[in-house]
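Model it.
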Amino acid sequence: MIRFIKTALCRFRDREDGSMVVPFALWTPLFIGLVLSTIELGTVTLRQTVLERALDQSVRGIKLATGSTYDHALLKSKICARAGTLPDCENTLQLEMLRLDPRDWTEPPHDANCVDTAQPVTPQRAFEFGQEHDLMLLRACYKYRPISPAGYLSSDLATDAEGYTALVSTAVYVSEPL
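Modeled.
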């Protein structure tokens, strides 16, 4: 009986069937994590680029002073219309506009004003339009949910209590005279 078990174990040891199962099981999670991180990084880059471009195009209309007056809602809708690939932009984009005085400089706040997804409505922190020759800072904060919270890149991104991550874009311009 012992000889039979010993022979069976020797045959099992010498067989090469299924020899790739162990390396496959060890390497597959690494490759899946790499693929998910690549997809996540691609979407973050695309969203940031689209937000930057939409903000720049919208600010161009403001600083050229084309005769129309912009308010918070109109500016937000123009940015969201130009940023077509940002899902739920109208609800998760928060704008902040500050007048800066280069002669009496005070540092603007470093943290961006983002939508608080836990609250039903987030009030504006500051939004004031400048007059001719005023130096203005416009900051847009867009919140989104990462594609895969289990990805390697997503685990390093700062998220709020609801699982949203923020992208911030800033533009500084001078209001041109009419």
